[in-house]
Design a protein that fits this description.
Length: 652
């Protein structure tokens, strides 16, 4: 993987593996292709930079570029290398437009500029023979310098979204820490330029927080954790100590704001749960690595050095305690452990999850990504988004976006379990978690109740005169006592498991305090596996702004195995770009009426009058009954997207 990355060959957001360079030929997005820019002749003195960046930034950029190794091929950081559309590093960041042209995806340059491949270069550096180690260290150094020279602060697409600024600087610093831990040494000029850019990142974050008192999300959390990483690595000053204190304060607030008491995330998405949990996990574990000297200096922070909303509270009003090894209070670590347990409970037997809500493949750190190795021919045949001629006998590394096993492993580490598999990420986590006392959580699955009868309960509901639809899914016979139900009422997800069965049921909030920005119209829907075979799946997300009609198609009621009615949507959204990340208003107000370990009864009001779904797990089948006026059966969605930009055609 590192050898692909050091040749600037990337597979991001469904692009397929492609070499990214100035003047490249792009494949397009569903027929939408734009000129990818001209070939450049990157002279060592940096004269070529004059057409790339503002003239005021040119002297410093040239100075930085002269430190790049001769022969290094620059990366076109401003290009969407799927569609070919190119932004300009001469454009002030707030004036960057996106979502304005079909097929153009601003997430592509943002994803590349997160530079989450850099820790992989550090891993390769550690593993390589002595004579080969230098190539990975030089590539890390060159890419950082390349980015700094071609992306002056606050200009171009890669300063537009503060979230991505925070994730980028964190990945720079984690990769840097790993290189240094593995014996790398860098020249003083590079160290100074890196430190200066880390400061630029921190200053940009604090001045551009994605904060709202009413709605904050993974974006704001990414800002805070990025600021934390920058402040931890910079020398102690009045300014950086205030940054650090503010980041610690806000991590505590966001834990209560973004994570329910049961540990599930408030955005209504199992994939965004992963991103936010990674941010909390690594942010907290890096924070506790502060040595005593830095902790003492941070305790003397001055609120007068903080000038933005929300305010920075004085030390005596803080919930964090820098005299404790673990810094954060006990409830914080317990909530984090519950968030990790949520993913652990959600996993299929192969380490993957059921998609519920949006999936944009978002990650914070990729220390141990999982790839399925297939042939190029198999990959091209599988994915509709891949349109290149497959080479015979060539291998294709297909990132398994749905594998969330690393969070289940982190849960076992925080709880000091013995059954932790050894891989690079678990070793790192075990080292970082040494100062954290073992966390003990009570079991979360439901105990059996024998005093409730589903039919007797249904007799109390106003079902007479309603239309009815039924579904029967056979399964191997097993006793009802073998079933366990893991209820997560916070997000509105109920997980049923046995040795033969895996099922999720969705019923609850639309997420983001009613905004529904990353939720789908999936209330009362289910996903189902029997003996490891998918019977009912959620179709995923596919794309956001490049093709709004695709975005709406994948989040629509009709895309999910739930009650259908005359083509109606459960919750309305505004048409076009304006409605892509919100519901116009919540209409469903879905409720669980009855829950026992092998059955759930639910209702929602999204069609103007109530509809009901009953799901029962019997000894030899899963039985589903729907009730409502003029309701119809769902038609299986044509496509499945197991990661942002990926699309396969569903057979059958």
């Amino acid at each position: 993987m590192a050898n692909l990355f050091r040749t600037h060959t990337f597979d991001l957001l469904g692009s397929g593996w492609c070499k990214v360079y100035y003047g490249m030929t792009v494949r397009g997005v569903e027929g939408n292709v734009y000129p990818a820019g001209d070939v450049v002749s990157a002279d060592h003195e940096g004269r070529w930079l004059s057409v790339q960046i503002p003239s005021a930034n040119l002297p410093y950029a040239k100075k930085v570029w002269t430190l790049v190794d001769r022969g290094y091929e620059p990366i076109p950081w401003q290009v969407d290398f799927k569609s070919g559309y190119t932004w300009s590093a001469k454009t002030w960041y707030t004036e960057i437009a996106y979502g304005h042209l079909p097929g153009v995806d601003v997430k592509v340059p943002w994803e590349l500029a997160r530079m989450q491949h850099l820790p992989m270069l550090a891993r390769a550096f550690r593993m390589a023979e002595d004579a080969e180690r230098g190539v990975y260290m030089r590539e890390f150094r060159n890419e950082i310098l390349d980015f700094i020279a071609l992306n002056p602060p606050q200009f171009g697409v890669n300063w537009r979204c503060t979230m991505d600024v925070g994730i980028r600087v964190s990945n720079w610093l984690v990769a840097y820490d790993l290189f240094k831990a593995f014996g790398a040494s860098f020249d003083d000029a590079f160290e100074r330029i890196l430190a200066s850019s880390v400061y630029d990142h921190g200053r940009h974050i604090i001045r551009n927080l994605e904060y709202s008192p009413d709605l904050r999300s993974n974006h704001y959390l990414s800002d805070i954790v990025g600021l934390l990483f920058a402040a931890l690595h910079l020398p102690s000053t009045d300014e950086t100590d205030a940054w650090l204190a503010f980041a610690l304060q806000e991590m505590g607030w966001e834990m209560t704001h973004e994570f329910h008491e049961d540990g599930s995330n408030f955005e209504g998405s199992t994939s965004y749960h992963r991103l936010s949990t990674e941010l909390m996990l690594y942010g907290a574990l890096f924070a506790v690595q502060m040595d005593r000297g830095r902790r003492d200096r941070v305790k003397s922070y001055r609120c007068t050095f903080h000038h933005v909303r929300p305010s920075l509270n004085p030390l005596e009003k803080q919930d964090f305690d820098l005299d404790r090894d673990e810094i954060f209070p006990e409830w914080f670590w317990e909530r984090l452990a519950k968030a990790l347990r949520f993913t652990s409970d959600l996993l299929h037997e192969d380490g993957t999850i059921s998609q519920i809500g949006d999936n944009d493949s978002g990650r914070f750190l990729k220390l141990h990504p999982v790839y399925d190795i297939v042939s190029e021919q198999e990959a091209v045949a599988k994915y509709m988004n891949l349109s290149f001629p497959a080479r015979e006998n060539a291998l294709y590394y297909d990132e398994n976006i749905l594998n969330h096993e690393h969070l289940a492993e982190a849960y076992r580490i925080l709880c000091h379990h013995d059954d932790v598999p050894l891989n690079f990420e678990t070793i790192v986590l075990q080292l970082l978690a040494k100062k954290i006392p073992a966390i003990s959580l009570a079991s979360h699955f439901m105990s059996a109740r024998n005093d409730l009868c589903v039919q007797e309960f249904l007799d109390t509901l106003p079902l007479v005169g309603l239309d009815r639809q039924e579904y029967h899914f056979p399964k191997p016979k097993e006793d009802i006592s073998a079933i366990r139900c893991y209820p997560y009422a916070g997000m509105g997800i109920y997980i049923f498991k046995s040795s033969h069965l895996y099922m999720t049921v969705r019923c609850g909030e639309v997420g983001q305090n009613g905004n529904g920005g990353h939720a789908h119209n999936d209330q009362l829907s289910i996903t189902l596996r029997i003996d490891g075979e998918d019977i009912i799946v959620d179709p995923g997300t596919y794309l956001y702004t490049p093709l709004p009609e695709r975005r709406d198609e994948f989040r629509a009621t009709a895309a999910h195995f739930t009650i259908q009615k005359e083509g109606l949507e459960q919750n309305p959204w505004h048409p076009g770009q304006v409605g892509l990340f919100s519901m116009a208003h919540e209409a469903t107000f879905a409720k669980v009426l009855l829950l026992i370990k092998n059955a759930i009864v639910m209702e929602h009001s999204g069609f103007g009058e109530k509809v009901y779904r009953v799901v029962e797990i019997l000894e030899n089948e899963v039985w589903i009954r729907d009730f409502g006026r003029n309701i119809t059966k769902p038609v299986p969605h044509r496509y499945f997207s197991g990661g942002y930009g990926k699309c396969t055609r569903v057979r059958g």
